[in-house]
């Protein structure tokens, strides 16, 4: 059944909770010659526990939006909420705490520390998080229990990305924000990484946002948001989500 219908039918106490809301956010980059509207008025709601895919041409504003939701950047105008907390004018130290307590990031290039093992890379986060899972548990969740003592250079691209995901989830974030997590991977390895993201989303109910250029990946999402020229051009809700292994590209 279409989840949009379910949302209309259930009582308020069962309705999915809005976890992110934006109201007419813009992001303007002013260089010497030109003004770039990276975001040109975005109204958005993301729901707790959902996996959302953001699709759109290069330069359409996807990363800019993700960075604002993740507290890495401020919008030029408009308003942004995480639950009841407004992020719009939050101080840098407030945003640092927000990121530390609530947000896990996964990027296209894994950003692992080359001189540290997989376990030590994850421990960089677990050492400072308020309620982390042990690094070993996070690495087991991504299927790397046998590779904990390996250095990044001893791991494949997909394995390094799984370490990066383990590092992101080890602090038990409410939100997992992924910018092109499979962009540097071949399709088989990319599917393995997507399986891990789906597993985390299902197992922990972690609200997950995935930016991709690969339109096929939208089939694993609960919600798909299309960007064009700094605006949302379409939002779609998938009645059914395919397992990553069922997606072919
Ligand atoms: N620091 C910056 N200074 C100037 N312009 C920027 C800056 N960051 C992004 N932009 C511009 O803002 C627009 C949106 O960029 P953004 O990275 O959000 O797009 P995107 O949809 O994520 O693209 P891609 O899929 O290629 O990563 C682009 O025109 C980009 O050139």
Automatic annotation (TrEMBL):
<keyword id="KW-0997">Cell inner membrane</keyword>
<dbReference type="GO" id="GO:0098796">
    <property type="term" value="C:membrane protein complex"/>
</dbReference>
<keyword id="KW-0813">Transport</keyword>
<dbReference type="InterPro" id="IPR003593">
    <property type="entry name" value="AAA+_ATPase"/>
</dbReference>
<keyword id="KW-0067">ATP-binding</keyword>
<keyword id="KW-1003">Cell membrane</keyword>
<keyword id="KW-0472">Membrane</keyword>
<dbReference type="InterPro" id="IPR017911">
    <property type="entry name" value="MacB-like_ATP-bd"/>
</dbReference>
<comment type="similarity">
    <text>Belongs to the ABC transporter superfamily. Macrolide exporter (TC 3.A.1.122) family.</text>
</comment>
<protein>
    <submittedName>
        <fullName>Putative ABC transport system ATP-binding protein</fullName>
    </submittedName>
</protein>
<dbReference type="Pfam" id="PF00005">
    <property type="entry name" value="ABC_tran"/>
</dbReference>
<dbReference type="GO" id="GO:0022857">
    <property type="term" value="F:transmembrane transporter activity"/>
</dbReference>
<keyword id="KW-0547">Nucleotide-binding</keyword>
<dbReference type="InterPro" id="IPR003439">
    <property type="entry name" value="ABC_transporter-like_ATP-bd"/>
</dbReference>
<dbReference type="GO" id="GO:0005524">
    <property type="term" value="F:ATP binding"/>
</dbReference>
<dbReference type="InterPro" id="IPR027417">
    <property type="entry name" value="P-loop_NTPase"/>
</dbReference>
<dbReference type="GO" id="GO:0016887">
    <property type="term" value="F:ATP hydrolysis activity"/>
</dbReference>
<dbReference type="InterPro" id="IPR017871">
    <property type="entry name" value="ABC_transporter-like_CS"/>
</dbReference>
<feature type="domain" description="ABC transporter">
    <location>
        <begin position="20"/>
        <end position="247"/>
    </location>
</feature>
């Amino acid at each position: 059944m279409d989840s949009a219908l379910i949302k209309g039918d259930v009582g308020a106490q069962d309705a999915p909770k809005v976890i992110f809301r934006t109201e007419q956010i813009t992001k303007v980059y002013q260089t010497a010659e030109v003004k770039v509207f990276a975001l040109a008025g975005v109204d958005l709601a993301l729901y707790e526990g959902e996996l959302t895919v953001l699709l759109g041409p290069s330069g359409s504003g996807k990363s800019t939006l993700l960075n604002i939701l993740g507290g890495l950047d401020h919008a030029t105008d408009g308003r942004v909420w995480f639950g009841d907390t407004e992020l719009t004018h939050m101080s840098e130290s407030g945003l640092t705490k927000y990121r530390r307590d609530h947000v896990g990031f996964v990027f296209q290039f894994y950003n692992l520390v080359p001189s540290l093992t997989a376990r030590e890379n994850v421990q960089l986060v677990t050492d400072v998080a308020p309620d982390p899972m042990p690094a070993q548990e996070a690495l087991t969740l991504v299927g790397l229990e046998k590779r904990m003592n390996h250095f990044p250079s001893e791991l494949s691209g997909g394995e390094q990305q799984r370490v990066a995901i383990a590092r992101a989830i080890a602090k038990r974030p409410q939100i997992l924000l992924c910018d092109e997590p499979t962009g540097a991977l071949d399709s088989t390895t990319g599917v393995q990484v997507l399986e891990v993201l789906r597993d985390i989303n299902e197992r922990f109910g972690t609200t997950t946002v995935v930016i991709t250029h690969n339109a096929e990946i939208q089939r694993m999402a609960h919600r798909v948001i299309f960007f064009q020229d700094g605006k949302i051009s379409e939002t779609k809700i998938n009645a059914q989500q395919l397992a990553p292994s069922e997606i072919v590209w």
